[in-house]
Amino acid sequence: MGLCATASSPDDDSSVLFFLKTKQSRRAGLRQNLARAAHQCSQRKPPAKPSPVSELDLYDYQLPRELIAQHPLSQRADARLMVVDRRSGSIEHHYVRDLPSLVEPNDAMVFNDSRVIPARLVGLRSQTGGRWQGLFVRKDNETGLWEILSRTRGKLKVGESITLEDRDARPVETLEVIARLPDGHLAVRPGSDGEPAELLERFGRVPLPPYIREGQMVDDDVKTYQTVFARDPGSIAAPTAGLHFTPELLKQLQAKGVQSHAVTLHVGIGTFRPVQTETLDEHEMHYEWASISAETAEKLNAARAAGGRVLAVGTTSVRTLETVAAENDQLVGWTGMTNLFVRPPYKFGAVDRMLTNFHLPKSTLLMLVSAFAGRELIMEAYAAAIAEEYRFFSYGDAMLII
């Protein structure tokens, strides 16, 4: 089901090369990537016929703009929690703080511990002096170049420079455009040496989605757009289902006998890139780095064997677990690049329950939850959420699918 994952070491994500210096190396790299993809996916053949639920328009809905949450609640666990029962089709209304009463001892919750980096870039174009905004995507370990997504109208040319500004509008760094990439992204060379996480701390901003105050951050976003268990820097968007948890709620869950475990998926373009094809089968996910330790895998396998249920917090946790289970028929220690696209129909192999936010129309995230609960039930739940005036998207309310 749209999976082609490559293993790599935890410190090396260069198995997917996206910057190539010359035409010759570009052709050679393309041949290598195609050969690798063919080998990895040789056992996974696409369905002979399109799925009856593969039409993009089936995942559309109309959302009043006033229901898009612009700020988080002052108390994270006060967010509303819709509970959707896949078997009975029932829909109930709770709060996130009620979660300890909705789980059982020996259940295992899985969080994504990736930490959001200040990936939003602001500056001036050297040729025109016009304002520019962009998003850091990732660094290529072989060339040292950065991949960025330009969010400003106007085509930047190869050789053009961008002068980046810090949070006080002072010029601090330059980016030289080296190449335009096939997907519309840019390959740029920073003027300073150093790792992206280190440099971005100097001049980057919180990468809020454009539907939150048009992407304009306030000081509180530095803390509120980060989960309390974020550890490993690397995401360019928050794993938002985790934003509802507080240390107090985690203690209550622990007292109930619920296990808490962490996996890592660095949220990249693959998670929120819009689907622009008429059918889901034509959409290709970008690769993202993910990891699960052998110890965590062993404990999750043991929990299920003992009758416990794995409750994945967020779609990124789901994709990490399902990537590993699809490749190995069970959970094992694993680190690699994944472009798993979960959409109906899909047979889940590692996740029993899911806690997630409410997602954008026609998004791959909406398709993932539809694969888990059924498209019709999910669309019914979304209609109920709109009628009950739930808060939507990153800073919004949550859904527990059981």
Automatic annotation (TrEMBL):
It is found in: Cytoplasm. It is an enzyme of class 2 (transferase). It holds the Pfam family Queuosine_synth. InterPro entries: QueA (IPR003699), QueA_dom1 (IPR042118), QueA_dom2 (IPR042119), QueA_sf (IPR036100). Its EC number is 2.4.99.17. Pathway: tRNA modification; tRNA-queuosine biosynthesis. GO terms for molecular function: S-adenosylmethionine:tRNA ribosyltransferase-isomerase activity. Keywords: Cytoplasm, Glycosyltransferase, Isomerase, Queuosine biosynthesis, S-adenosyl-L-methionine, Transferase. It catalyses: 7-aminomethyl-7-carbaguanosine(34) in tRNA + S-adenosyl-L-methionine = epoxyqueuosine(34) in tRNA + adenine + L-methionine + 2 H(+). GO terms for cellular component: cytoplasm. GO terms for biological process: tRNA queuosine(34) biosynthetic process. Signal peptide: none annotated. It comes from the Bacteria. PANTHER family: S-ADENOSYLMETHIONINE:TRNA RIBOSYLTRANSFERASE-ISOMERASE (PTHR30307). Transfers and isomerizes the ribose moiety from AdoMet to the 7-aminomethyl group of 7-deazaguanine (preQ1-tRNA) to give epoxyqueuosine (oQ-tRNA). Monomer. Belongs to the QueA family. This is S-adenosylmethionine:tRNA ribosyltransferase-isomerase.
